Amino acid sequence: MRKFYSPIYWFLITGLTLIPAIATLAQRLNQDHFVLAVDSSQTSAMVTGSTGGGYSLASINNRDRYGNPCMGYGDPEPDHIMILKGEFSQLSLKVNSRGSDTTLIVKGPGKNNIRCGFGKNNQRDAIVQDSRWRSGEYQIWVGSVSPNQRSGYRLSVQQ
Asked: Cα–Cα distance between 107 and 50 in angstroms, integer?
């Protein structure tokens, strides 16, 4: 004898199993996105995450718009999305990983607008400081110098 399940049954089964995945995705999107606006009190932000992964961040681009090398390992998808409302004359993005060797790639808006940073002058944490930040969406990757090296970090963005 063949059992017949109604479409409502299948909807309930598949819907209930997807709810945790959708909730996790929504939580990740809310945590990873932040907005800065020139004409408001929201001109700085601080977000947290974890470095690591086996994806070569140099595959995003070998060099940034100034010729700095883009390097490190992380996830193929960006760790954070920064949305700028208005043009910022100056921004500084700094990683604090408590001593881990980190890298930073900021892409956008547009395909060829890339800024890369890494630790300099005996500092292991990555930094990107630049001027003329156009309004729009920026993808941010925080990576580690070695593949699959997990390390917690705090990323601060300020004028």
From this structure: 19
Q: Domains plus CATH for the chain?
A: 33-158 (2.60.120.380)
Find out whether 94 and 156 touch, Cβ atoms under 8 Å: yes
Read off the tokens for 26.
């929504």
**Which residue, 126, 137, 106, is CA-closest to 51?**
126
> Does pTM top 0.85 for this prediction?
no
pLDDT mean across residues, the chain: 84
Q: pLDDT tens, 114-141?
A: 999 987 767 789 999 999 999 999 999 9
- Tell me the helices (H) and strands (E) count for the chain, helix number first: 1, 11
